[in-house]
From TrEMBL:
Phylogenetic placement of the source organism: Bacteria, Pseudomonadati, Pseudomonadota, Gammaproteobacteria, Alteromonadales
Chief location: membrane
Organism name: Thalassotalea mangrovi
Topology of the protein relative to the lipid bilayer: Multi-pass membrane protein
Name of the featured protein: Sodium/proline symporter
Keyword Transmembrane set for record: yes
Family: Belongs to the sodium:solute symporter (SSF) (TC 2.A.21) family.
The keyword Plastid is annotated on this UniProt entry: no
Function, in words: Catalyzes the sodium-dependent uptake of extracellular L-proline.
GO terms of biological process kind: proline transport
Any GO CC annotation of this UniProt entry: plasma membrane
Single GO molecular function: L-proline transmembrane transporter activity
C-alpha cells in the first residue's frame, strides 16, 4: 500500500538535506582534486567512523541481512560475527599504517596510487590493473545499491522499480558530483545516525506488538531453530566475509582521509560500537519480523523488504517516512562512496597518467565529476533487472575486492619483501579466482562452486600464496619504498608508545 503524502514529504526533505550537504561541501572543500577526492585529509574521527560504517553496510544492512535472518533465523549470525571481527582487525592492522604511509609516500590519494608508491614507482602497472579491478567490481557493487533503491520505491511508494532506481541514482549523483569526498563523508555521518536509530526502534517496537498479540516470551523467538543441524561449513563460509574488509577501497580510503592517525583508536571505538548495535538490530528485525508475519497472518513476497513492511505496518506514516529514509541512507552512503572511489581511480590512476600533457586542476575536477556520472549510468543499466538480489550482488563484489586487494594491502604494510611482480600477480589471481568460482557452472545441475562455499576465502588464499611466491622469486623492492615503509613503522610505533 502506498504511504500517505506527508510521509513522502519526509523522504523528500531528507533528499533536500543531502543536496544541501553537497552544496556546502562544494563551497568549502573542492578547491582542487585532492580536496574533492580525499577531503584534504581533514576528516574528524567521528565522521571517519560513521562514514566508514555507513558506506560499508549499504542497503544490505536494512534489506539483505534482515531478509537473510527472516529466512534462516540465527544461522545468519555467522555472517554478522565475521563482519564485526573483520572490521575490528581492519582498524588494528590497516588503518594506522595506511594513513601514515599514504601521506609519507608523496601524498597518495587513491588505493591504486598507494600500491604504485609502495614500490616507489609513479606509474607502475599495478596501478592500472588495480584501477580496472576497482571499476569492474564497483560497477557491480553500485548496481546492488540501486537494486535496493528500486525495491524500496516499488514496495513502499508503489512506483515502478525502474523509476525507483532512477530516483536513487539521481539524488546520489547530484550531491556526490557537487561536494566530492566531504559531501559523501558528512552525509554518511548523518545517514549513520539515522540508520542506528531505525535499527534500534523497528525490532524493539515489533517485539512490543508481539507481546500485545500473543502470550509471547523470549524462548519463542528461537523456536524452530535446530542448533544440532547447523551446517558448520556454511557457517564458516559466512564467517569468512570478514576477510573482505582488508580490500574494500571505499572503506579503507576513509583511513587515508582522517585528520591524523592519532585519532584512529577513537574512530575504531565509535565505528565498532555503531556496527555492533546496527548488526544486532538488523538480525532482530528479520527474526522478530518473521514471527510477526506468522502471528498476524500477513504475507510478504520478498524477505528483503521485511524492514519496509514493519515500518509501514506498525508506525505512524510520518515516522515510517523517516525509517524509509534510513534505508535510503544506507543505500546512498555506499553508492556515493563507490562512485567517488571509481571516479578517483579513473581520473588519478588512468586519465591523469595517460593524457598527452599534464591536466590542470580545473580539468581534473571536471573529469572527476564526469566520471561519477558515467559509472552511475552503467551501474543503473545493470540494476534495471528487478529480479536481482541485493545480497547476491554485494557478495560477488565484496569477494572480488577482498581477494584481489586484501592480501596485497596487508602485505604492503607488513612485509618488506613484497615486490611489484608479486603484487600484480596477486591481484590477477584473486580477481580471477572469484570470477571463476562464482560464475562457472562446474557442478551438477549447472551450479557453481559458490553454492558450496563462499568464493572469498579461496580467492584470498590463492592470491596470498601467489603474491608471496612470486615476490620471493623476483628482485627486492627499491630502497625508496623500504625507506617510506620504515618511516611509517617508526611513526606508528612512536604513537603507540605514547
Amino acid at each position: 500500500m502506498p504511504i500517505p503524502d506527508y510521509a513522502t514529504l519526509s523522504v523528500a526533505l531528507y533528499f533536500l538535506l543531502l543536496i544541501a550537504i553537497g552544496v556546502y561541501a562544494m563551497k568549502t572543500s573542492t578547491a582542487d582534486n585532492s580536496e574533492y577526492l580525499l577531503g584534504g585529509r581533514k576528516v574528524s574521527a567521528k565522521v571517519t567512523a560513521l562514514s566508514a560504517g555507513a558506506s560499508d553496510m549499504s542497503g544490505w544492512m536494512l534489506m539483505g541481512l534482515p531478509g537473510a535472518a527472516y529466512v534462516s533465523g540465527l544461522d545468519s549470525i555467522w555472517l554478522a560475527l565475521g563482519l564485526v571481527v573483520g572490521a575490528y582487525v581492519n582498524y588494528q592492522l590497516v588503518a594506522p599504517k595506511l594513513r601514515v604511509f599514504t601521506e609519507v609516500a608523496d601524498d597518495a590519494l587513491t588505493i591504486p596510487e598507494f600500491f604504485s608508491k609502495r614500490f616507489a614507482k609513479e606509474n607502475a602497472r599495478v596501478r592500472l590493473v588495480s584501477s580496472l579491478v576497482i571499476i569492474l567490481f564497483f560497477t557491480v557493487y553500485t548496481a546492488s545499491g540501486l537494486v535496493a533503491g528500486g525495491k524500496l520505491f516499488q514496495s513502499a511508494f508503489a512506483m515502478d522499480y525502474q523509476v525507483g532506481v532512477i530516483i536513487t541514482v539521481g539524488v546520489v549523483v547530484l550531491y556526490t558530483m557537487l561536494g566530492g569526498f566531504l559531501a559523501v563523508s558528512v552525509s554518511d555521518f548523518v545517514q549513520g545516525i539515522i540508520m542506528l536509530i531505525a535499527l534500534i526502534a523497528v525490532p524493539v517496537f515489533t517485539l512490543q506488538q508481539l507481546d500485545m498479540q500473543t502470550t509471547w516470551n523470549d524462548s519463542q523467538i528461537l523456536a524452530g531453530l535446530d542448533w544440532s543441524t547447523v551446517q558448520w561449513v556454511t557457517a564458516f563460509s559466512l564467517f569468512t566475509w570478514g576477510l573482505g574488509y582488508f580490500g574494500q577501497p571505499h572503506i579503507i580510503v576513509r583511513f587515508m582521509a582522517i585528520n591524523t592517525h592519532h585519532n584512529i583508536p577513537k574512530a575504531k571505538n565509535i565505528g565498532i560500537s555503531w556496527m555492533t548495535i546496527s548488526i544486532i538490530g538488523a538480525l532482530l528485525t528479520g527474526i522478530i519480523g518473521a514471527k510477526f508475519i506468522a502471528q498476524s497472518s500477513q504475507s510478504l513476497n520478498d524477505p528483503e523488504t521485511i524492514f519496509i513492511f514493519l515500518s509501514q505496518f506498525l508506525f505512524h506514516p510520518f515516522v515510517a517516512g523517516w525509517f524509509l529514509a534510513a534505508i535510503l541512507a544506507a543505500i546512498m552512503s555506499t553508492i556515493s562512496s563507490q562512485l567517488l572511489v571509481s571516479s578517483s581511480s579513473l581520473v588519478e590512476d588512468v586519465y591523469k597518467h595517460y593524457t598527452r600533457k599534464p591536466p590542470e586542476d580545473k580539468e581534473l575536477l571536471f573529469v572527476s565529476r564526469a566520471c561519477v556520472l558515467v559509472v552511475a549510468v552503467i551501474a543503473s543499466l545493470i540494476a534495471m533487472d528487478a529480479t536481482s538480489s541485493v545480497l547476491s550482488l554485494v557478495s560477488n563484489a565484496w569477494a572480488g575486492f577482498g581477494a584481489a586487494f586484501g592480501p596485497l594491502v596487508l602485505l604492503s604494510l607488513w612485509w618488506k619483501r613484497l615486490t611489484h611482480a608479486g603484487a600484480l600477480t596477486g591481484i590477477v589471481v584473486g580477481a580471477t579466482t572469484v570470477l571463476l568460482w562464482a560464475n562457472v557452472p562446474v557442478l551438477d545441475g549447472g551450479e557453481t562452486l559458490s553454492s558450496l562455499f563462499y568464493e572469498l576465502l579461496p580467492g584470498f588464499i590463492l592470491s596470498l600464496v601467489a603474491t608471496i611466491w612470486v615476490s620471493l622469486k623476483t628482485a627486492e623492492p627499491k630502497q625508496q619504498a623500504l625507506d617510506w615503509l620504515q618511516e611509517t613503522e617508526q611513526l606508528v610505533q612512536s604513537d603507540n608508545q605514547h
